[in-house]
Each structure stands twice: as C-alpha cells, then as structure tokens.
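Field reference: sequence -> structure
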Amino acid sequence: MSAIDLLVTSGSGPVECRIALMALVRIIEEECGRRDCAVEVTFGHAPDRHGAKSALVSLEGQGATAVANAYCGSVKFIFKSPVRPGHKRQNWFVAVKRVDLAEAAEPSIADGDVRFETLRAGGPGGQHQNTTDSAVRAIHLPTGIAVVARSERSQHRNKQIALRRLAAMLRALAEREVEASKAGLFMANKELERGNAIRVFRL
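Structure field:
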C-alpha cells in the first residue's frame, strides 16, 4: 500500500497558527498509533520555538485512508494566545491538504545538495514488515529539511520517494516565499476562516 501524503500548513496566519499546527501534528501521530498506521513527519524550513509553518505528514498502513479523510480540510483550534496575553482572538486555523507525490515529476534538486542515509525500515505490517536496511533518509543540506521513505522494499524506490517528498517541501517553501496568499499548496489564513472547519479542538 503506497503512502498518503498530507501537507499541513498555517498559511499566512500568525504565530498562534504555528502552535496549532504543532498540536495537530501530535494529534495525528496519536491517532495513527491507535489505528495501526505508520507516520513520518517532515517539518518545513527553519521552525522556531513556536513550531513550523508547514509539515508534510506521510501516512502508511491499514488506517492511513481513515486518518487522512478525518483531517483533510480546515481545522480550527480554540485557545487563548500564550504569546500575546490579553489578545482577544481565540480561534486559530490550520489547513490540511492531500498531495499526490506519486504523479509529481522527478525533482530537479542538485545531487550535491542532498545527503542520503540508509536505515532499517519499520512501520505497520507485523510479519510482513520490511526489516531490511532499505529505508532512506534524504537531507537537503542548504535548508536542513530531512525526509524519510520506508514504504518500498527497494532502496532505490525509497530514494525516489524521499526526493519527491523533499521536492514537495521545497516547492511549498518557494511558493510561500513568493506569494503566500496565492500559493498552490497553501491557503491563506483568511480563506481558512471563511471555510467550515472539519475538526475543532480546544487546547
């Protein structure tokens, strides 16, 4: 079963939306643990102490589709700002969008900009779990972004998947830097507020 990749983003929202994003990633990880679903999280470039502006969440296993369906859309968090005491706003939004990396073109990342590491594959599957050293971690040296691919038994295939995930994060980063409110993989925070939240959490 191929992995399902979700792009999680705080859009152009303030720091509180990054706090909400990090909370949502933890919630998804906990749900994956309950649903026999492996999860790999890649955070966007240079997260600060409040968290990252974006993350690529790769799901694999029996419950991957159910988890993806449960979170795709606009997710609202309700909490008082821990950063700006007295701030009246309490609603913060995060967007979750499924991205199809399988159909993405081969990324044009310079060979010298990526370091590959091999590691033992794991995840759901019990006796069918891949136990060879076929999993691959790809580290983009200029940004420090690191992704892991372990779904295939072939190290070569995992390397290709890792490159696609890395390219997706770099594309998202570039698009946000150029024009955050109109970037193809990101929804601006105002658009999130207008939409109906698929999930609501209180922190």
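Note: The mean pLDDT is 78.
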